[in-house]
Amino acid sequence: MNAPSENPADLDRANPEAEIAARAEAFRNWGRWGGEDRLGTLNFIDAAVRVAAAGLVKTGRVVSLSQSFDMNGPQKGWRRRTNPVHLMMDTGTDAERGAQGFPHGIGGADDHISMPLQCSTQWDGLGHIFDHGHAWNGRRAGDVVTSDGDLVTGIEHAASVIVSRGVLLDVGRHLRPDTGELEDGYAITAADLDATIEAQGVSSLVGRGDIVVVRTGQLARTRRDGWGDYAGGPAPGLSLTSAGWLHRSEIAAIATDTWGFEVRPNEFDVAAFQPLHQVVIPNMGLTIGELWDLEELGAVCAESGTYEFLLSAAPLPITGAVGSPINPVAIL
Fold it and tell me: Which Pfam families does this one have (predicted)?
């Protein structure tokens, strides 16, 4: 069987079902780490990978790759996704007025937050997307995720896993040197990823167990022009045809500065929704990050000419969750 084409021009734009199925079959990792596996490609991160990644720390500089978690966010209510609501339950005003009932003058503040787990910088867990009723590793979707949550691949299983070598592929800066920003709807191909690596040099060579972060520049444009349709609208992102690259590179995870990771609109002339998600999450077992802030990191890497770093991006161990908010940090 021939491998699916990595040229977007070869896609049958009228048949997403066939194009997705070809890549799901070609790049499926079911059973690769045993029938009980809960981590998918995160298994590529082992102790040796982490030790090597720790050796990349030279200056001790830490760059947060998280957007803010507040009411001034991109969400507009799609699929009930809203921005975080932060409420104070105890305040300094209560303390000043002696309204808290504590002895000897002590007072305090306490607060509460309510939010969808994928409203800002986050990981998609392996229970987030299904393919024809199947979840990661070939399990029945209904046996994995119920009203009680993800009973098998809940995000809590990755809580101590996601520390590895991070690699920035600044595709926006490479392909659009004048602006550093890919236009909405631009589909990033395997050739684009390889060309970016070649231009950036040896520090951006991608290997097994790495976490790749792809900067498109869309967040920079959004901050300049306003949120608009940043959450759910047109965006640059990975082409469906990049699935083979994601598979053969044996990366542990990938994240972008966009809402949907893959190009939007998707690459078909008929109804299609997130076809690359459908290939890589339930079939490949790849963990995906979205809504990451890669602006400071992009500037630092461009200035230093070094694109690798220690990356720590642990999810909150929310039992049974199919995603998690995070504050990923690059340590240089």
Answer: Cyclase
